[in-house]
């Protein structure tokens, strides 16, 4: 007879102890660890896998070619300007084709996301530049074109303004200026009425001049420079003041290239990039040639990694002339004596996979493709049929928990009472200035500033808004200042302050009326960060983990019930013996 233990007796009933195998099979894993430890080990492994998955999702960096999604089969032509032509708060693209044809690609919600919807052709001449803006103050987008003769008999440029009406352009509604220009003019607000003016050297002038404020001032170029590129203005070192950046070459072939910086109030040029050597290959800027496919040496500015310091895109050519590519110039802390006074410098990002695959690049600029506050890249390259440029769009997959504020300042010529019941959005406004102050993640004060549409000539390709990187600081912006030009003779500043601006948001400022800043309005639009998606994934993962634990415990309980039923079937009373 099989012996029984009385330690498990209850109410005169003696039960057989469970077999050892039942103990080892119960729990979350194999082996003979206690059930609690086995469950903890499984949960720890699951959480580790979840963290690894999130890490892989967050580790996405580099660029992704999305040209087919954006343009389909229309990815060719010369990208000439940006602007919200149809006032839908989405930036449209102005593209030149055939030398005398302008196409406006309107943003759409379906692929391809940019479609050519507006077409404008000129009968005589070649279009050299496009500058969208509201040139008559009706809060509707007009388009200014500069043209030169088809046969290139003279280098004089003519200016034509096509007047926009109801989100269309009519080739018969235009104004041709009665003066020609020696070079492409600058579009600026000279008299502070928030209507763009045309400033340049006409055929009646005998010498070029640079107008700064109310004083005519000519700034000397850096010493030992032979070729000078196009000036760029940006807050390079994050001190809240705008610096002057100038790409230049010490020889006509640009084998000795450099980028110089000049701070306000100092008559000194400071080199912020002189090292253009990658391993055994020496690179340099591409010298300008007076033909249709050549573009002056220029830098296109944008905060690629949202660290609060503007980066740049530049076209470089190796000294042998066999390759011409677009490169990202990253704004990094200074590590040599020449730039110590500004504490920052440019460093060429030589290895950027999809960008390096584009050969014979001509122009590279930043553009927020998906309106998410992250600056992507558009590159024009040679090699398309009929001497047209190919358009390449690269999505920026940079993820580093960085934050931004996107600011656009409108003309403010009207607010809620615009003529023809149009919306006040959609006009490119040169002249406004934005500055902010906040506190970074380490508790130090952080400043930044930017001007809106400070350039217009030679395919400047500046965006009609400013994306201000804030780094990894998720703090509110303590102060955001917006200023607009004021008329000559007016002493009071036209400036307004907003406080506690939420990061990862877009601020649309309507300075109406111009002379009463306290009445200006601002519309705030929030842009959720990718951290929201990652948080949702983590939450779903935790829920799945909890459900798995509940399922395992339920399975254990059911197994224990089955075992108890089997034991119940073998019970007997001692009185029956």
Structural class: mainly beta
Computed CA radius of gyration, to the nearest angstrom? 33 Å
Low-confidence stretches: 1-48, 50-60, 208-216
Query: What percent of residues are in strands?
Result: 25-35%
Q: Helical element count?
A: 5
Mean pLDDT over all positions: 82
Tally of strands: 35
Morphology call:
globular
Major β-sheet annotation = 6 strands, antiparallel
Please give the share of residues in helix. Answer: 10-25%
Alpha-carbon distance between the two ends: 12 Å
Protein name: Integrin alpha FG-GAP repeat containing 1
Keywords: Glycoprotein, Membrane, Signal, Transmembrane, Transmembrane helix
InterPro entries: C2_TIP (IPR057089), FG-GAP (IPR013517), Integrin_alpha_N (IPR028994), Tip (IPR024881)
Family: Belongs to the TIP family.
How would you describe what is shown here?
The chain is mainly beta and 577 residues long. The chain has a domain at 403-530. It has five helices and 35 strands. The strands form nine sheets. Strands 19, 20, 21, 22, 23 and 24 form a six-stranded antiparallel β-sheet that branches. Strands 14, 15, 16, 17 and 18 form a five-stranded antiparallel β-sheet that branches. A four-stranded antiparallel β-sheet has the order 1-27-26-25. A hairpin with a 5-residue loop joins strand 22 (311-318) and strand 23. Helix 2 runs antiparallel to helix 5. It starts with 19 loop residues before the first helix and ends in an 8-residue tail after the last helix. Residues 1-48, 50-60 and 208-216 have low confidence and may be disordered.
């Amino acid at each position: 007879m099989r012996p029984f233990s009385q330690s498990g007796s209850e109410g005169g009933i003696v039960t057989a102890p469970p077999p050892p195998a039942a103990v080892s099979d119960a729990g979350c894993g194999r082996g003979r660890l206690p059930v609690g430890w086995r469950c903890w080990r499984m949960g720890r492994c699951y959480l580790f896998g979840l963290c690894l998955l999130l890490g892989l999702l967050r580790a996405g960096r580099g660029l992704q070619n999305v040209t087919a999604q954006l343009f389909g089969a229309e990815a060719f032509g010369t990208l000439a300007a940006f602007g919200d032509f149809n006032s839908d708060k989405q930036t449209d693209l102005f593209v030149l084709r055939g030398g005398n044809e302008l196409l406006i690609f309107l943003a759409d919600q379906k692929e391809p996301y940019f479609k050519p919807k507006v077409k404008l052709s000129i009968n005589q001449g070649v279009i050299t530049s496009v500058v969208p803006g509201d040139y008559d103050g009706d809060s509707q987008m007009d388009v200014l074109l500069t043209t030169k003769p088809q046969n290139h008999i003279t280098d004089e440029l003519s200016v034509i303004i096509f007047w926009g009406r109801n989100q269309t352009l009519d080739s018969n509604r235009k104004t041709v200026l009665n003066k020609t220009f020696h070079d492409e003019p600058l579009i600026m607000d000279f008299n502070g009425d928030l209507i763009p003016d045309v400033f340049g050297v006409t055929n009646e002038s005998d010498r070029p001049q640079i107008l700064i404020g109310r004083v005519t001032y000519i700034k000397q170029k850096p010493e030992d420079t032979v070729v000078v590129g196009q000036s760029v203005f940006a807050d390079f070192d994050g001190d809240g003041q705008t610096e002057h950046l100038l790409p230049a070459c010490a020889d006509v072939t640009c084998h000795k290239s450099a980028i110089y910086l000049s701070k306000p109030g100092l008559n000194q040029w400071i080199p912020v990039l002189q090292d253009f050597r990658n391993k055994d290959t020496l690179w340099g800027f591409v010298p300008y040639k007076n033909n249709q496919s050549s573009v002056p040496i220029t830098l296109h500015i944008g905060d690629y990694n949202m660290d609060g310091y503007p980066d740049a895109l530049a076209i470089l050519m190796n000294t042998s002339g066999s390759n011409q590519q677009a490169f990202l110039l990253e704004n990094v802390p200074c590590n040599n004596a020449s730039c110590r006074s500004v504490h920052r410098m440019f460093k060429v990002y030589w290895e950027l996979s999809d960008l390096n695959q584009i050969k014979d690049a001509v122009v590279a600029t930043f553009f927020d493709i998906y309106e998410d506050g992250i600056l992507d890249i558009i590159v024009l390259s040679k090699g398309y049929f009929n001497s047209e440029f190919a358009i390449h769009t690269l999505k920026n997959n940079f993820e580093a928990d960085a934050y931004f504020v996107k600011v656009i300042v409108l003309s403010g010529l009207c607010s809620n009472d615009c003529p023809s019941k149009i919306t006040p959005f959609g006009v490119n406004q040169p002249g406004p200035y934005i500055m902010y102050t906040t506190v970074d993640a380490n508790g130090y004060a952080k400043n930044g500033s930017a001007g809106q549409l400070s350039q217009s000539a030679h395919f400047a390709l500046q965006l009609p808004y400013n994306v201000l990187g804030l780094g990894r600081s998720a703090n509110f912006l303590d102060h955001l200042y917006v200023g607009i030009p004021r008329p000559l003779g007016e002493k009071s500043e036209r400036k307004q302050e907003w406080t506690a601006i939420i990061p990862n948001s877009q601020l649309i400022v309507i300075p109406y009326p111009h002379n009463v800043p306290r009445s200006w309005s601002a519309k705030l639009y929030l842009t959720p960060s990718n951290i929201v998606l990652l948080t949702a994934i983590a939450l779903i993962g935790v829920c799945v983990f909890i459900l798995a634990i509940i399922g395992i415990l339920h399975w254990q309980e059911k197994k224990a019930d089955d075992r108890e039923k089997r034991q119940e079937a073998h019970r007997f009373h001692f009185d029956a013996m």
